[in-house]
């Protein structure tokens, strides 16, 4: 860790931060790419580029890579300007820097080990309760109090960790309703993966909407699954209706649509990831990305199988497997790829506020 001079300012700089400052200083002088995405207009507003600015800009970047393919200074030019890769490397450092508690930061490079350990431990605890008679209910397999206690405690701890991590993110300079509306619009439509309707240059230099739509299926599929769980809790605690619910009930419809969305979205994202141009990526994050996609995919598959086979003798085993996978996903949310959505949303809101 050394120091880097930018203008009249000295800043502590890791290798990735130093490289990011070098590259974006060149970009700020060139400004050829200012119409491609939010990063370059935001960069132009910085009077003296520093490490905090890089934190913000890195999370504002969607890794669409259009600037890389358009850049006259990209490798093999001696300037070697590669904005997508430089900001991807800074993002990993950003995740670790904002992790709370701080001693959990190394989990970003080992999330698959944590998820695997939680899943195996949960499976062993579930197997210890076998066998169950035919006709056993969900709550015969896992008592309702145990299910609520484990997942409720996990949810509280996860929410606390995520809120604490967001508190350290470079803040907003002001708040306006129009700014919030524009920011939410950018978040919910993935505006900066559309390139004006042509789609981003991913996984290669050709424009495509595949990444944007895969993200949409994943994001909205996840939200539908959360909505399904929320409605099911309302049924249980307010209406006094216990699971399992009919196939045409609201919780089952929401969960089925959400599960299918996750299946389509995660499959698409993984397929694209396997075919991306390695020049635009930070390969250190491959495990982080793949673990999150695998957990979302497995949660969806096991949930849909449980729905299809809930009246069969295989229900207890499928329920234990599904809950184990979901718990593995839960515990890695604050220390896995999930946080990229939160930080990107915060960056987009800040950009929209400053633009107003």
How does this model look, in words?
The structure is a single chain. This protein is mostly helical and 356 residues long. The chain has two domains: 2-96, no CATH class; 102-355, no CATH class. It is 63% helix and 4% strand. It has 14 helices and four strands. It has helices at residues 15-30, 39-44, 51-60, 66-70, 83-98, 111-127, 138-141, 144-167, 177-189, 210-237, 250-275, 286-308, 315-332, 339-355, and strands at 2-6, 9-13, 200-201, 207-208. It has a two-stranded antiparallel ribbon. A two-stranded antiparallel sheet has the order 3-4. Helix 10 (210-237) runs antiparallel to helix 11 (250-275). The longest helix is centred in the middle third of the chain and has 28 residues, at 210-237. It is elongated and about 70 Å long. The two termini are 37 Å apart. Mean pLDDT is 92; it is low at 1-12.
């Amino acid at each position: 860790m050394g120091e880097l001079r930018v203008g009249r300012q000295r800043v502590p700089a890791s290798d990735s931060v130093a490289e990011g400052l070098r590259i974006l200083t060149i970009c700020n002088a060139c400004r050829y790419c200012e119409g491609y995405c939010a990063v370059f207009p935001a960069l132009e507003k910085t009077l003296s580029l520093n490490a905090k600015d890089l934190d913000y800009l890195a999370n504002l970047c969607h890794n669409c890579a259009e600037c890389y393919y358009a850049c006259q200074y990209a490798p093999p030019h001696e300037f070697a300007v590669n904005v997508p890769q430089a900001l991807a490397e800074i993002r990993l450092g950003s995740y670790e820097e904002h992790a709370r508690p701080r001693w959990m930061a190394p989990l970003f490079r080992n999330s698959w080990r944590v998820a695997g350990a939680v899943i195996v431990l949960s499976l062993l605890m579930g197997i210890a309760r076998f066998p169950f008679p035919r006709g056993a209910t969900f709550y015969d397999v896992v008592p309702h109090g145990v299910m609520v206690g484990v997942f409720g405690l996990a949810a509280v701890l996860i929410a606390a960790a995520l809120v604490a991590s967001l508190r350290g993110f470079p803040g907003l300079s002001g708040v306006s309703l129009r700014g919030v509306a524009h920011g939410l619009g950018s978040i919910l439509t993935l505006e900066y993966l559309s390139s004006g309707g042509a789609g981003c240059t991913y996984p290669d230099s050709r424009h495509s909407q595949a990444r944007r739509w895969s993200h949409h299926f994943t994001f909205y599929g996840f939200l539908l699954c959360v909505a399904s769980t929320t409605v099911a809790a309302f049924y249980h605690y307010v209406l006094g209706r216990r699971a399992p619910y009919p196939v045409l009930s609201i919780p089952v419809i929401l969960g089925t649509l959400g599960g299918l969305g996750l299946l389509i979205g995660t499959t698409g994202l993984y397929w694209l990831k396997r075919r991306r141009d390695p020049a635009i990526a930070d390969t250190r994050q491959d495990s982080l990305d793949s673990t999150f996609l695998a957990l979302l995919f497995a949660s969806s598959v096991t949930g849909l199988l449980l729905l299809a086979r809930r009246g069969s003798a295989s229900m207890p085993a499928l329920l234990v497997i599904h809950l184990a996978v979901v718990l593995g996903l839960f515990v890695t949310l604050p220390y896995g790829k999930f946080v990229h959505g939160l930080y990107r949303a915060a960056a987009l809101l800040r950009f929209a506020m400053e633009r107003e």
